[in-house]
Amino acid sequence: MVKIKGIGAAAGIAIAKALVLEAAELVTEKRTVEDPEVEVTRLREALVLSEAEVRKLKQRTLEQLGEEKAEIFEAHLLVLNDPELLGPVEDKIRTESLNAEYALQEVTSGFISMFENMKSAYLRERAADMRDVTKRVLAHLLKVKVQDLAAINEEVILVAEDLTPSETAQLNRSFVKGFATNIGGRTSHSAIMARSLEIPAVVGTKEILHQVKDGDLLILDGMDGSVLLNPDEATIAEYRAKKEQYEAQRAEYAKLRHVPTVTMDGLHVELAVNIGTPADVAGVLENGGEAVGLYRAEFLYMGRDSMPSEQEQFGAYKTVLERMEGKPVVVRTLDIGGDKELPYLELPKEMNPFLGLRAVRLCLERQDIFRTQLRALLRASVYGNLRIMFPMIATLDEFREAKNILLEEKAKLAAEGIQVSNEIQLGIMVEIPSTAVLADLFAKEVDFFSIGTNDLIQYTMAADRMNERVSYLYQPYNPAILRLVKRVIDSAHAEGKWVGMCGEMAGDETAIPLLIGLGLDEFSMSASSILAARSQISKLSAEEMRTLALEALSCGTAEEVARLVTQTRHHSSFPM
């Protein structure tokens, strides 16, 4: 038996024979043509055929998975009709007398390379969309028949280099029990589709395509991110039992979808979801999220060559607020810098961008960008329960300046006769130690805090969380971090304000008991973590967790804290 490790992209366990997908041979050879207009016509005909196929896929996805997932194919349709992409292809055909397939491959390869070299994982994985569309058009130009995945009629686990959104949308979950790929990540469209279809998936294995052949028996564990090749009978029996336990657990979680998040002794907390696009709201609602705790507005600015207009931003914010139907939506203003870049801003390179001109610092310097976003947010505020949050606040002066700009834009809109809600809460992210230390003063001026633990931990421990050599210092349970969290929560509560957390720590099963004990009001996490967290919290006693948190604050190391939580679990009723 061989164990192949990857990234768990969609939860669940599958046991079935492998079906290895061989990539269609789409070889493009450079040819000089006598009549470029014939090639332009061939290209346009291939685009028409491709568009018809994508529209069918979009309709099928709409019927099976709903409007949100069908939006993936709307993006493909935009690519197929994008003059900034197709114009250069036609120009290349005409000016260099090239065959259509070679010109298409040359131009799209440049775009794909650009996406793949971006630091944002979200944007790198958008390269898959471009590859998917290019592959479809090339198949028509080369007259190559692509495998029909919808025709699979026996139980299998697919093994491939990658699965495009188009391929994933064709999968029949009655027969395709799971899939494993060499490349990909949790935020790729194929992974998102797999979670919607409830098909277990493991991606990013790097080598599975070279290790598995058709007919091999596989066990795929989407939680652990592993694939077992040709397991023995004892292992098969073990995983069949795990599969039954997982499915029983899912059935229990499903009962909690519309239940408030309350501890055993009656303390209610709010479980919210972190989102990046309006399409992500479906996951919030499907998993029983009580709010959007972090809407990362910067995704509106990425993957393009110019700033989004006020109207475009207004449309996105309005959509999210309306779909949440009055539930709170916390929108973080533009958080660019560090590992998130906007090439069209042409900002100077910095020695240490994580400590440089980023987030609210950039917005205060480039007020033209900031004011446009604030106007869009204020205009959208009448369509739901909007809360606005400034990131990377280090001083009271920064918060006051940002707030004053918002109030100026609100007054301008009123003068224009545009309605704005008077119920907007205004808060800050606490991700810099100076802000946590002065939380008692900030709490007098803000409406809420949201603790961004990803950055708070790296700044407190002086350890770059992207640097594997110092990753051991990324310690969410370190007593120094817990003491800062306690200070922020206590300071807010003293002023009658609420505190959320939108970093990875909020959904961490070891941290949740500690955060309940410290008094955190709102936990914001990935949609897929909501029901497990709700189940865990329902089995906790807030009173017991307060005692646990006090003990943890007196520990000396992160390891001691983790051990304390584990020991308490073994001696009480609360789960992990």
Rounded Rg: 25 Å
Strand fraction: 5-15%
Write down the overall geometry: globular
CATH homologous superfamily (4th level) name of one domain? Phosphoenolpyruvate-binding domains
Text of the CATH class of one domain: Alpha Beta
Low-confidence stretches: none
Strand order of the largest sheet: 1-8-7-3-4-5-6-2
What share of the residues lie within helices?
40-55%
- Total number of β-strand segments? 16
Terminal residue distance: 30 Å
The chain-level structural class is: alpha/beta
Helices and strands in order:
Elements: E1 2-5, E2 7-10, E3 13-20, H1 36-65, H2 67-80, H3 83-96, H4 100-116, H5 121-124, H6 127-142, E4 156-160, H7 165-169, E5 176-181, H8 189-197, E6 201-203, H9 208-211, E7 217-221, E8 226-229, H10 233-254, E9 270-275, H11 281-286, E10 291-296, H12 310-323, E11 328-332, H13 360-365, H14 367-380, E12 385-390, H15 396-415, E13 425-430, H16 433-437, H17 439-442, E14 448-451, H18 453-461, H19 479-494, E15 498-501, H20 511-518, E16 522-525, H21 530-538, H22 542-553, H23 558-570
Parallel strand pairs: 3-4, 4-5, 5-6, 9-10, 9-16, 10-11, 11-12, 12-13, 13-14, 14-15, 15-16
Antiparallel strand pairs: 1-8, 2-6, 3-7, 7-8
Structural commentary:
The chain is an alpha/beta fold and about 575 residues long. Helices cover about 45% and strands about 15% of the residues.
